[in-house]
Design brief:
heterodimer; A: Formate dehydrogenase/DMSO reductase fold; 1% strand; B: alpha+beta; Alpha-Beta Plaits; 2 domains; four-stranded mixed sheet; 10 helices; 30% helix; globular; Formate_DH_Fe-S_su (chain B); 4Fe4S_Fe_S_CS (chain B); transmembrane (chain B); membrane (chain B); metal-binding (chain B)
Chain lengths: 371, 343
């Protein structure tokens, strides 16, 4: 046991701050190093938040990233498609657009089924997924979501089974009970209309009610971004599955959703602390969100210009909207993960709000006290 | 009498809030970790790991971050000793930031207790004309601090847990039931201190490679300090506190621990060590005060602690409101689209 081996690793005495930054590794380190070079890597647009003056524990993260992989991002997207399709199916049911209703119900079932599989696959103990239903917990958006998703899955299943029975020429051996299934499907269709929006929006609450800097900072704007994104994606899917004679409402919704997505993202970012916003604009999440932005514009404009005239171009626009929505979700999730990698995203906004409160004369609510 | 809705934010009695009946409720237990007398021996890390039979976390090579070889709290590391080496400038800065804290008139919370003669003497030194310039300004110091789960009064992990696997014990601590947890990971993001983590790795036999999941218990579930719930039930002291050779880790009733912490910080201030400050002793802070109080000798972020942590459910009302508004907006827009699309 001697110190000498390890002394070799010990850098010569230097100002501490510099040492800390040199040691940063991974994404956060790359980011800082790039910034120090003055962002000289070509035309990449990067947000330059002024360097924050603070110490840290060797640049190590303070909060932990949620152990959520691509399955969760995919679920956010699929949940949005399911919820939006439920609303479309309900509208189509009310206004007798039979093709749209049937296709939207199938879309909702497919999305809610695939989404549920993603959600369960991402659990640490997938075999215990039913433990989610041990309790109803208003403080846990994951708990609200479980119940909304279960209810939604049930009603969508009933509605879609009835549609399938209809499409396949009444294959189910129901006999005189068939009218009951149709009635149940109608009622379920109404329930889909009621549950669709809450299903599409709760995932925003799920991300926001955390200590992940970028998600928590986005809490006021994120639900609007997610419902817009869900509306655009579900309408986009309807434009792929259904002919233009029945998709006029879906096209209107696609354009509104796309515009909403762009506006909501902009307003959401303006509402955030610059450091909370930064992960949405740099590195991989930044690239994804930029691409999402472009696809959403393309899809929206395409829908506006060609949605009625060309089935192919309508479907292409719909696909662009769906891709934009998916990339938005992946980008937002990954930006959250990125915001946990560097302590500056935790310390910067917290220091600032502490200083703000102190400047306003509130000095009694700090976790650090002199006595 | 508790209200129908448990309190989510602000000062409260967590035991009463969790509806433990008078009969079952115990006094709230807490740690007071006095980092000014920590010697960095890591006995707490070892005792914790032994008692709780936690798996090995990595290879325990030094991280080239002073003497730290565990890095951070996590699923397999429930006590983590931080090592910080500081030169003259940092010491001066820490002293200055501490002095600023004192001059802000940060409150001493709770009723002022009658002073003992010793405290009166200290106070006289602090306020009188005795020379209180620091006896020495070291050009180098080594900060060591044993970090642990804060067992918050308003616990983020507990609030967002969808299964009820996390619960508030009769001692006011927060504990995971590992046979219930399904590893959804919401608590990991919920914790403002980065304490709780899902156990996705860890080894138990010396020969196994990282990635071998050889019978590691509670794999895939959330894990963190239980404040030795099993030992508390038998009237024992948590393993880390019992083993700590310098009494840097103290354990006892929450009120006693906070009192002790206040006395100690006053003592250090009287000696001119204005860098001393408490962390987690204020029930008005963002997590309602913690069940693990620390005496620190520099800003919290120097130790890897957040400077202004807030329980995520503080914003529950705001989040629910924008959630409801956005959902309603989505329905309204859809209704308009169908009405407009009819023609």
């Amino acid at each position: 046991m001697t110190n000498s081996d390890f002394d070799a690793y010990r850098p010569p005495e230097q100002p501490r701050r510099k040492r800390r930054r040199d040691r940063l590794s991974g994404a956060a380190g790359d980011m800082l190093r790039r910034r120090r070079r003055g962002g000289d890597d070509g035309g990449r647009e990067m947000s330059m938040v002024d360097d924050v003056e603070f110490t840290s524990y060797y640049g190590r993260p303070i909060v932990k990233a949620a152990p959520w992989g691509d399955e969760i991002s995919a679920y956010l997207f699929l949940g949005g498609v399911a919820g939006g399709s439920g609303l479309l199916a309900f509208g189509a049911q009310m206004f007798d657009l039979d093709d749209l209703r049937r296709n939207a119900r199938f879309a909702a079932l497919g999305a809610v089924g695939a989404g549920t599989v993603c959600l369960i696959a991402d659990l640490g103990r997938p075999e215990r997924f039913l433990n989610m239903m041990r309790t109803v917990k208003p403080t846990s958006p994951m708990s609200w979501g479980t119940w909304i998703l279960s209810a939604y899955g049930t009603v969508t299943g009933i509605a879609a089974v009835s549609e399938a029975d209809d499409v396949l020429g009444e294959v189910l051996p129901l006999g005189p009970l068939r009218p009951m299934l149709r009635t149940a499907a109608d009622t379920s269709g109404v329930a889909m209309g009621f549950l669709g929006a809450p299903l599409a929006a709760y995932t925003a609450a799920l991300l926001s009610m955390t200590s992940t800097p970028t998600w928590a900072g986005a809490r006021r704007g994120l639900p609007y971004l997610f419902v817009s994104s869900a509306t655009a994606a579900a309408s986009g899917l309807a434009m792929i599955t259904t002919g233009s004679e029945q998709t006029k409402p879906a096209r209107l919704l696609a354009i509104t959703g796309a515009a909403g997505e762009l506006i909501a993202m902009d307003l959401m970012k303006k509402d955030m602390h610059p450091l909370e916003r930064e992960p949405l604009e740099i590195e991989e999440p930044g690239r994804k969100l930029k691409l999402a932005h472009a696809l959403t514009i393309a899809g929206g404009v395409g829908t506006l210009l060609f949605g009625k005239r060309s089935r192919i171009l309508a479907a292409a626009s719909g696909a662009a909207l769906m891709a934009g929505s998916a990339l938005t979700r992946f980008g937002v999730v990954e930006a959250g993960h990125l915001s946990t990698t560097d302590p500056k995203y935790v310390v910067g906004p917290q220091r600032d709000r502490l200083e703000e409160r102190r400047a306003a004369g509130i000095v009694d609510d700090s976790i650090t006290t002199a006595g | 009498m508790t209200a129908l809705m448990p309190k989510l934010y602000g000062a409260e009695d967590p035991i009463e809030n969790a509806r433990w009946s008078l009969h079952d409720a115990k006094d709230r237990k807490a740690f007071f970790t006095d980092t000014s007398i920590c010697i960095g021996c890591k006995a707490c890390e070892v005792a914790c790991k032994e008692w709780n039979q936690n798996p090995q976390d990595g290879d325990y090579e030094y991280l080239s971050q002073s003497h730290d070889n565990t890095g951070e709290l996590g699923a397999n590391t429930w006590r983590h000793v931080a090592f910080i080496e500081q030169g003259e400038d940092e010491v001066a800065k820490a002293r200055e930031s501490g002095r600023r804290l004192v001059s802000l008139g940060m409150p001493s919370i709770g009723p002022k207790t009658a002073m003992t003669p010793e405290q009166r003497a200290d106070a006289a030194i602090a306020g009188g004309n005795v020379d209180t310039t620091p006896p020495d300004t070291p050009d180098f110091r080594w900060l060591m601090s044993s970090d642990v789960c804060k067992h918050c009064t308003n616990a983020g992990c507990l609030d967002v847990c969808p299964t009820g696997a996390l619960f508030r014990t009769e001692f006011g601590t927060v504990v995971v039931q590992n046979d219930i947890c399904n590893g959804c990971g919401t608590c990991v993001a919920g914790c403002p201190f980065g304490v709780i983590q899902r156990r996705d790795d860890g080894t138990i036999s010396p020969k196994s490679e990282p990635g071998d999941h050889d019978d590691v218990k509670n794999m895939g579930t959330a894990n963190k300090c239980t404040l030795c719930y099993d030992r508390l039930l038998d009237g024992q002291t948590p393993a880390c506190a019992q083993t700590c050779p310098t009494t840097s880790i103290k354990f006892g009733d929450h009120t006693d621990m906070v009192d002790k912490a206040r006395q100690r910080v006053a003592e250090l201030h009287a000696k001119g060590m204005t860098e001393a400050r408490l962390y987690g002793a204020n029930p008005k802070d963002g997590v309602g005060g913690t069940g693990a109080v620390f005496l620190l000798l520099d800003e919290p972020e120097t130790y890897g602690l957040p400077p202004d942590p807030v329980v995520p459910t503080k914003h529950l009302g705001q989040i629910m409101a924008s959630y409801a508004a956005a959902s309603a907006g989505m329905v309204a827009v859809a209704a308009l689209a169908f009405l407009g699309g009819r023609k």
